[in-house]
Amino acid sequence: MSAGTLPVRTRVAVAATRAVNALSRHAGAGSGTVAGGNVGLALDPLLLERLAAGRPMALVSGTNGKTTTTRLLAVAIEGALGRAATNATGSNMPAGHVTALAATPQGAPAVLEVDEGYLPRLVASLGPRVVVLLNLSRDQLDRTSEVRMVANKWRRALSVSPATATVVNADDPLVAWAASGAASPVWVGAGLSWREDAVGCPSCEGRITFAAGEDGGWACACGFSRPRLGVRIEGDDVVLADGRRLRVALALPGRFNRANAVMAAAAAVVMGAGWEDAIRRIGEVDEVAGRFAVVGVAGCAARVMLAKNPAGWRELLDLVCPGERPVVVGINARVADGRDPSWLWDVPFERLRGRTVVATGERRRDLAVRLHYAGVPHRTVRDEVAAVRAAWMAGRGTTAAGARARCARSPHLAASVEGEVDFIGNYTAFTDLMARATRTGT
Amino acid sequence: MSLEIVVVHPDLLGTYGDGGNGVVLAQRARWRGIGAELVDATSGEPLPTGDLYCLGGGEDAAQTASAERLRDEGALERAVGRGAVVLAVCAGYQILGRSFTGADGRARSGVGLLDVRTVKGAGRRAVGELLAEPADDRLPLLTGFENHGGLTIRGPDAAPLAQVAAGVGNGDGTEGAVLGRVIGTYLHGPALARNPALADLLLSWATGRRLEPLDDVEEAALREERISAVRERRARHRVRHRVRYELGSS
Ligand SMILES: [Zn+2]
User: Fold this and answer.
1) Residues A264 and A311 in one domain
2) Which residue from A144, A197, A200 is facing B125, i.e. has the nearest CB?
């Protein structure tokens, strides 16, 4: 369908969406991703459905990894389907979706990150070709979203959508349950490092037992168990149902990004891409919305990472430990972060023992108490940029020469850095630091 | 001596970071040279024997499952009978009462260690900072974060833990309940990280000794920040209210 066949009301709404976004970008009032979409939806409440019509579409949802997986999937299908409409900045509710679709030609493919709560509604109204279900675990504690309830809502929506395929992390019992009534699920063994939210069986309220080891399956006495895997990860390889084995070489760090990459590739294949082509394209992505990028902060090369909940923190602590660089941890508790930082006690900060650690952010004192009980000596510094500087000054094991050598891919940054640090922040602590960092132009 | 500190059903009652209470108790004992063993007692195994038990907050279905398990087993009541100390938070607090409301709206039996019962509140969920003046005047102000939809009604045998200074608590101006060595509260944060004096009170009950003070600089800084955050918000609120009143009447 070309734009010419859209109703007049919709065409006006599209024009308004683009105009408002251009204006707000110009005025510097944010990246212009939500304001325009809201105006468009006010003019035409069916705008999202109309913009979605006729597009090959993928939706990506889950507690962790959705922004990364969305980006990887958009990149993976580019060879087969062309450039996709995608909400790259993580505005994952309908206004952000409208903005993403309005910015591309009607009919272009779309890969949308979707907030867990909105997924059922969008599955029903947009009829996507594939839905990617990553994982479900506790997130912002003062929101009253109970993960089990979310899983049940996903299940209801997917079981009445026979035209929608699913790519599902079979290692997470909650998402496996959500997809248990879905049409043609692709079961991926993508791993689950956070099991605390998954021990209650979603089918019978009994207990799920996990087999020992990382790669073990799971089962409940009621018979609900991990489905037979269609796609497995073995070391650096992905192994397909037909026995084919492909090397997954990624520029992004960490085991969890390997899982995101394989989920994205499996979805790309459902969309019509080839495995080899999808994996090759995914392998070249080296940062996602700034995450894992190396940025300049007060003369330091800071590797910046975002963790939004205990499962995400656990993954990132795995990534930075062992290591020698000083670590800066930034914690806020604004509405977008969840206002209760009690979850800090679910994070194994004990792993940072022996490192130079600086606590920063508006809730650095909650973090300081947590580190104190974890036996991790630390300093607290109110200002995030000053915290990065302080961490490097107090740190051991990194030299200016070493830091510059490791910044070789960013000559622009390498010329000026004197040291390097790892920064992990929760949502607004991360975005606050990024707003003040020097990007490297990668 | 060595203290056995049991975190009860972290697989069911671990949603709000309250497992941190066990960590705080164990560390504060160790820092004083008292041995402490921290045990995560998941719901699939029998509840181990301990000196201190911590229960935390959890989702509705998990709360019901945990309560059933504890009632069937009877091990927690036996431990309390032997003099064990219990700190129960939020869903855990409700479990220790006589009854609470399940996800389906039906009343469920609790363990009955506290003379309280909890019903569904009529209004909005209580979510926010909670500040309370403890009944025991050896304790300083209690600070924490509450997040619950329950209204807890105390019976004649349940003394309140504190009077609410800001927030909701039980819903009648009081917060929590105490009977002997069993304490129930709505304070997350976790409670003992933000109120080390309460942690020391529990430890002194469990050890039977007076404990020397620790150097609680970080805890003091956190307490000061949270308590003044609540007071500033209340002051701003009062000013807004006053301005509205004066504008309205002019
Ligand atoms: Zn079951």
Assistant:
1) no
2) A144
Are residues B17 and A342, on separate chains, in Cβ contact within 8 Å? yes
Query: Residue A215 above 70 pLDDT?
Result: no
Q: DSSP string spanning A307-341?
A: --SHHHHHHHHHHHSS--S-EEEE---SGGG-S-G
Which among B59, B145, B221 is the nearest to A342, CB-wise? B145
Say if B60 is an interface residue toward chain A (CB within 8 Å).
Answer: yes
Same domain for A229 and A298? Answer: no
- Tell me the pLDDT band of A123, cut-offs 50, 70 and 90: very high
The reply to whether A420 and A401 lie within a common domain is: yes
Q: Where are the alpha helices (DSSP H) in chain B?
A: 20-30, 60-73, 75-81, 91-96, 191-194, 196-207, 217-249
A176: helix, coil or strand?
A: helix
Instruction: Indicate the residue of A138, A368, A372 with minimum beta-carbon distance to B15.
Output: A138
Both tokens of B194, joined, read: 């933000």
- Please identify among residues 197-236 of chain B the ones whose CB lies closer than 8 Å to any CB of chain A: 218-219, 221-222, 225
pTM: predicted TM-score of the whole model, two decimal places: 0.81
Residue A228 lies in domain: 47-283
- A127 and A150 inside one domain: yes
Distance A54 CA to ligand 1 centre (A): 40
Residue A21's pLDDT is what? Answer: 85
Domain-terminating residue out of A283, A312, A342: A283
Percent of chain B with pLDDT over 90: 81
The predicted structure's pLDDT at residue A409:
59
CA distance A207 to B78: 25
DSSP character at residue B52 = E
- How far does B155 lie from chain A, in Å, by closest CA? 29
Q: Considering only the beta carbons, identify the residue of B65, B190, B222 that sits closest to A205.
A: B65
Give the environment of ion ligand 1: residues with CB less than 5 A. A 201, 203-204, 206, 220, 222, 224
Say if residues B152 and B162 touch (Cβ distance below 8 Å): no
Count helices and strands (H / E) in chain A: 17, 17
pLDDT at residue number A414: 58
Q: Number of folded domains in chain A?
A: 2
Residue A141 has pLDDT above 80, yes or no: no
* Shared domain check, A302 and A248: no
Radius of gyration in angstroms for the set of CA atoms belonging to chain A, rounded to a whole number: 22
What does the pLDDT look like over B103-145, one tens digit per residue? 788 999 999 999 999 999 888 889 999 999 999 988 999 999 9
User: In chain A, which residues have their Cβ closer than 8 Å to the Cβ of B62?
Assistant: 200
Q: How far apart (Å, rounded) are the C-alpha atoms in residues B89 and A289? A: 39
Q: When comparing pLDDT for A212 and B145, which is higher?
A: B145
Nearest CA in chain A to B9: A196
Identify the domain boundary among A232, A258, A283: A283
Q: Per the domain annotation, does A9 fall within a domain? A: no
Q: Which domains does chain B have, with CATH numbers?
A: 2-214 (3.40.50.880)
Active site residue B90: yes
Same domain, A225 and A246: yes
Same domain as A234, residue A358: no
Could you tell me if A78 and A203 lie in one domain?
yes
Dihedral angle sign, alpha carbons of residues A348, A352, A353, A356:
negative
As for the ipTM of the complex, it is 0.94
Is B17 within 8 Å of A200 when comparing Cβ atoms?
Answer: no
Catalytic residue (choose from B148, B188, B237, B241) = B188
Question: Across residues A230-238, what is the average pLDDT?
Answer: 93
Q: How far B227 CA lies from chain A's nearest CA (Å)? A: 13
Highest mean pLDDT out of A42-51, A283-292, A408-417? A42-51
Q: Which residues of A fall within a CB distance of 8 Å from B190? A: 342, 345
Residues 6+ apart with CB under 8 A from A399: A419
The residue of B168, B192, B218 whose CB has the most chain A CBs within 10 angstroms, and thus the best one to mutate to test that interface, is: B218
Q: So what's the pLDDT on residue A249?
A: 94
